[in-house]
Structure formats: structure tokens, C-alpha cells
Design goal:
By secondary structure, this protein is α+β, with helices and mostly antiparallel strands. The chain has 21 helices and 23 strands. It has an eight-stranded antiparallel sheet. A seven-stranded mixed sheet has the order 19-18-17-16-15-20-21. α6 packs across α7 and α9 crosses α10.
Length: 677
Amino acid sequence: MCGILYSIQDQTSQIDHPSVFGNEISEENGVSFYETDDTEKIKSLLIQPQLDNDLILTKSDQMKLDNLERLRTLNEKLISLNNTIKKKLDDDKLKQKLEIEHQIDQIVNHPIHDDELLNQDYNLWNDLISRIACRGPDYIQYQQFCHHDKNIQLFSSILSLRQPFNKQPTETDDFILQFNGELYNEECLNTNDTDFIIHLLSKNLNACNTRKLAVLKTIAELNGEFAFVLTDKIENKVYFGKDYIGKRALLYSMVDSRLIISSLPPADHSRQNYIECKSSQLYQLDMTSFKLDTVEYESIWSEFGSDQRISFDPLVYNSSIANVSSKIENLYKVLNNACLKRQNTIHPLHETQGSQLGILFSGGLDCTVIAAMISDNIIQNGNRGYIDLMTIGFDNPRTNMKASESPDRKLSKKSWFNLLKKYNNELFKIRLVEINVEYREWLIHKKRVEKLIYPANTEMDLSIAIAFCLASRCSNDFKIELNDEIPKNLDFNEYMEDESIYSTFDSNYASNAKVLFSGLGADELFAGYSRHESIFNDINIDASDSILLKKYQELSESLIYDIQVIYNRNLGRDDRAISSWGKELRYPYLDNKVINHVINDIEPNLKLKYEWQLKTTKKDKVGKQVKTYVRKWILRELAEFMGLSWVKDEMKRAIQFGAKSAKLEIGQSKTKGTDNL
């Protein structure tokens, strides 16, 4: 993984030189240069000062903490009044309600003048370099030079997970490459993927009529999770973009004849100029005219063809599918292969004790399937080691719910217990890592996460991203590991009666996992949201096959749209939040081959199933036909096929509700997820 920062502007324009490197920047042949692979120096010089500056309690936050008990008392009174007012309108009670709301507002939104969070000597380049260094703590490199009449600055930070190690930016006589991500092309699974890109580019330069076509053909042939900036020094062009699904963050800002391309936005007001790169297109800057153009992936694939092309030609509704079992087996093979490639390409530069990989784990269907595949692959290969399942919960002062009581915590413990009974052996262990976030800690990290996730800017974005961000930090947590010898027939409920008999605990555990797996993408591929059900709301019990065909076509179109916009809804935001701890996120469900398979080889009525059931209520003495839905039906059947029956019927629960990271603050009860921060 790499953090990318690239700037190009007129040579006559004023340059923001980074001062963070002091007088250690060397000058040679017109190039300003700095590099280091000293991880302690990177941490002390860039990472820790940035965290110290961001992770602070403001005066207004401290006021909330100091008045927390009073806020709780006021909130309880408000809930009681609201319940009374619902039954009977009462002017006195309405006045009491308004007065309590005013008192809460005075504490929560008190006009305290917080100390300025940005240093008076704020320097854009220093800020971006420090933030981007957090993404890659193994190596950093800075360059500044003039090319024709343009000034170019580059900074890369690397979390090295593919060997042999390759410095970045990578430079040849023709090109400068900054590459953030992982490739899973068969030709480079056992080597450095940056080297593979350079070799592929060289090959295509010999095969294509123009340099531009060679660049576009090269990018279109890449399979993986990536973002990049490629400078063509011969034709004075800059190409940048991301993979077609958009699994890595990349932003750009073009103001006053200056183009900045960055993995992260800056902390100051100028972040408003930063735009998320679209995943469906590649960008090209002509240095001479300073004109920015785009090229659609679809047009590149149409011209060259590519094994990596994602085809959106879904199967239609089929009421009589005869080979469902083979469909389930084929889905297993494709998804398992996506997991295996992502597991086998973890070769960190600095070996550490413990787990090399972790899983963001709610205990639900999507992540449990992934956890089971990863565990089985490790065992089948005879490998030794651990995996960490990261489960997060938040203490919520508004509802008085503890992190340990959150729905995801309860489910994750149940799924972990069943997984380890199935897979634990002498060589391989599954550990549950419980991450409990207190209200104070949430306040400390909130402002930093808001800065990281921009241009994502809603309450829902924050509540999701802060859960992922603190789960991926993986430190000062509570680890549970099952003892080697437990009764084979031990039931989960029996285990919960006295965990200490069967488990060992570590109350101050820090996971060393540098790669985290996510189940993101399953809901978009297999119809996991309520909006997918709503397509069928107006269907009656006598609906003809032609009507069902139309409705399932609408479902397929909705699922395709979900995949096409997932870069903007989820992926950029999550990448910026999680990678800020020097962790890399991998998405098996969003593998190109998995997407192609699910869209083009699995009928939509195997994704969302519904049936009519006769139900009798107290109101209706006569039974009433009611639709019942099963979202992600074939994925649930896959869980059954894999022996994960306990999770087969678990319903979708968004992380902000499962971990209780939404609406933490008293006075937020009326806040909507779509409200801007």
C-alpha cells in the first residue's frame, strides 16, 4: 500500500516547500530529494506529531464530559415527557420539554471558543505529507524538480506488503509511477506488482501505435485494488485514476493552474476543492495546455478487450432453475479463490509476531463466510498462525448501552465460538479482539475522522467511518482465545455461563495484523438492502412471469448501479479512515471475477427470494397473504454448504446500528443520517 501526493504547477508560481524534513533535503542535478526507511524516524518526525495535533479534546468536548451525568438526567426527563405528550397534549409539559431541550443544547452546542486546531504556521504541504505518511510507515520519499516550464512535487509513503521491496516513486527514463494498491494478475502474484506494471508498460509501448494507447491498455489490464499517478516525461502527460470499482481513495484539486492529486484531503478549508476521482474513468492532464481530460474504462475495454473487463449483462428471472447446487459450488470456488489470492500476497517488509491478517468482524453472514474461507485455506495449506477477528462496540451515553451489550458484539462472539470449534487446531488459532470505545475516546477521534473522510460529509458517513477507523487501529483491546482442550460438544450458551473456564484473556492486546479483510460488497451484489425488497412491494400473489421478469430486471439494474457508485458511497471514505493507521483493507467480494460471476452467472431470483405466507392477526380473523423476503438467498445457501448453519439466517444490520456508533451524543435523537456534519 502506498500514500500518494502529487503536485504540478507553473514554474513561476510560489512553491509550498515542506519544512518537516528540515535541512535534510538534498539537492542534486536540479532535484530536491529526501528519503528514509527508518520506521522510528518516520513515526517521530511525521506520524506522531500529526496524531498529537489531531487527537485532542476541545474545550467544548470537555464540557460535554464534565456535564455527562447532568445530560443523562435531562435526557431521561425528556424521554419521560415525550412519552406523556404523545398521550395528551399539555401546554405546561410542552414548555418543560422546550426548556429541557434548551438546557441540553446549551451544554452540547455551547459557544465556547475552542483553541484553533490548525497551527498558525499551517503549511499545506507539511500537513498532507504528515497525513499521508500515516498510510505507509515503512518508507517515505519526497522529490521536487522542474520539468520544462512546470514545477513537480511528489511524495510517497509505503506500507510494504509485496517483496522484493520497491521504492516509490518508481522512475524510468520515460515514466514516474506512484502506485497504491495490490495487483492479483496471475503473472505477479509472487513478485512486486509495481515492477509488473513497469514491465507491462514497456511491453505495450512496443505493441501500440501511440504512448497514450500503451498507458491506457496497461491500466485496463490490471486486476486488483489500486490507485495511481503516472507521469509520461516524453509526451508531458500525467495519467491518474483508480481501478474500475474504486477500492482505493484518490482525490484531486485543480485551482489556479495547479493540480494536486492526493490519497487524502488537507485539514484546512482548501479541502473543499478536493474531488473524489470517479472509478469508471481515467484522467489525463496535458502539461503544456494544462487541460484535464477523461477516458472511460468502457471505451478502453471496447478498443483493446481485457480479461479484467467487468461485464454488466445479468441473467434474467428464471422460475425453474435446475442446477442450484452447482451454482452454489461455483460461487464457492470463485469467492474462495479471491480470498486465497489476497491471503497469499501478504509478505510484509518487517515481520511481526502474531497475526498477519485480521477481519473486520460483526459476526454476520458476509464476514463469517470470508472468515471461514480464510481459515480453511490456512489449514489446507498446512500453515501455522493466527487470525484476529476485530469486533467493535461503542458506549452510548444517550441510550446508556455499553459496548459489550451492542448487537454486533453478541453476534460476533457467537460466530467466533462456532468458527473456532470448526477450525482451531494445534497450528492455527482464531482470536476474537473486542474493541470497546468509550464516549471520551469517540470525542477525541471524531474530528480526525471528519477530516480523513472528506468529501464524505454526513452523520451516517461519520458513524460508519469512525467504527471502521477505531476497529482497524487494533490496539489496547481485549483479546479472547479459546484454550486448546475444550469439550467437543460444548454449546455456546454453556460456554457463556463461565467463559473463564475455557478461555484465556489479554486485556491490553495490540494486534499486529497489517492487512484487514472486509465483507463489503456482498449487500450490493446479492441484494442485501431494504431498497431491493421495495422493488417488489406492489407485486400481488397472482403476478405473471412477465411481470416478475420486469421486476427482477429492475432489481438487476439496481444491483449494477450499487456496484457502479460504491466507490463514492463507501470505498473512498473507508479507505481513508482505515489506512490512516498503516493498515490495508482487502475486499474479496469486490474481486473482478467475483463481480462478473455474480452479475452474469447467477439469476436475480437466487439473490432476492420472496414467497407468500398465510398469516392471521388479531385484526383479521381471516388469514392474510403476506410477502416474506430472503435477501442474499444464495449467499445464505453458500453458508449452509460451508457448514456455517448458525449464521445462515442472520439479517442485515448496518455497522452503525450493530456497533451502536450512530447518534452517540445526547441531543442527537432527531439527527438524520443524511444530515451534513
